[in-house]
Amino acid sequence: MEKVLSLSNIIWRRNGDTILDNISFEVNPGEQWAVLGLNGAGKTSLLDIIMGYNYPTAGSASVIGTEFGRASLPEMRKRIGYVSSSLDKFHETLNRETGLNIILSGKFSSFGIYRDIDEETKKHAEQLLNDLNLNHLADRTYNTFSQGERRRILIGRALMGQPELLILDEPCSGLDIRAREDVLKIVNRIPEEERHLLYVTHHIEELTGAITHVLLIKDGRIVAAGPKGEVLTGSLLSDTYKTPVKVYFENERPWLVIDDVEGNNE
């Protein structure tokens, strides 16, 4: 079966500096991945490679059947749902749109509605609002939403395009605990929809039971990649976060505490 994502020996340099160094990992059908690392570790640069916004200096990449250099990257992006703080640049346009229109715009990978909407498409958008418990936002404009509601409506917009791969780049950043858990409830349902997830964060407690595999990245290099239980150890995370830590699991989610005794990391 075709791999969802395959990166082999990826190197990316910018202005003579090596930002990503020898990155190799694969996402197989049925796997749901998280990418963990400190700010500046290379997570966003990795996503820019996967989305085709930056082209590797060396190495090869294939994403949902699209081999870089041999197929259309814009066409590939239509099959990917992407939620990131980079969408903030569309803030002024979003502020004027209702919740329903924002969801609908995901069908066309646009911000704003510029064509007629058929009844079937509208019903799909309304069903998504209902599934995400956002019916109350259907006729309200984006500028009246809470931060948590904004994040959830943008995830709904991404899902409207029925993506094969959903990339969430720090979707809980800046949210309070209740808003964070609302977002994570959505995340936990993604595998049930027969799509694949790439969840990027530096907070391991956001990794719900839906996540099966983890990639750890530090200073542009991979520390470890594999099944969640094998990768989320104190020693590997201490290396990744450059701080001695311990890890424990509760309700299928990992939690991290600082280890006062350096070297006692398991």
What does this molecule look like?
This protein has 266 residues and is α/β, with parallel strands linked by helices. The protein folds into 2 domains: 1-79 and 163-236, P-loop containing nucleotide triphosphate hydrolases (Rossmann fold); 85-162, no CATH class. The protein is built from 9 helices and 12 strands. It has helices spanning 43-50, 73-77, 91-95, 99-105, 119-131, 147-160, 177-189, 228-231, 234-241, and strands at 5-14, 17-27, 33-36, 58-63, 66-67, 80-83, 165-169, 196-201, 213-218, 221-227, 245-250, 253-258. Helix 4 (99-105) crosses helix 5 (119-131) and helix 5 (119-131) crosses helix 6 (147-160). The mean pLDDT is 90. Residues 5-244 form the ABC transporter domain. GO terms for molecular function: ATP binding; ATP hydrolysis activity. Belongs to the ABC transporter superfamily.
Give a brief description.
The protein has helices spanning 43-50, 73-77, 91-95, 99-105, 119-131, 147-160, 177-189, 228-231, 234-241, and strands at residues 5-14, 17-27, 33-36, 58-63, 66-67, 80-83, 165-169, 196-201, 213-218, 221-227, 245-250, 253-258. With 266 residues, it is α/β, with parallel strands linked by helices.
What are the SSEs and their pairings?
Elements (H helix, E strand, L loop, with lengths): L4 E10 L2 E11 L5 E4 L6 H8 L7 E6 L2 E2 L5 H5 L2 E4 L7 H5 L3 H7 L13 H13 L15 H14 L4 E5 L7 H13 L6 E6 L11 E6 L2 E7 H4 L2 H8 L3 E6 L2 E6 L8
Parallel strand pairs: 3-8, 3-9, 6-7, 7-8
Antiparallel strand pairs: 1-2, 1-4, 4-5, 9-10, 11-12
Helix pairs in contact: 4-5, 4-6, 5-6, 6-7
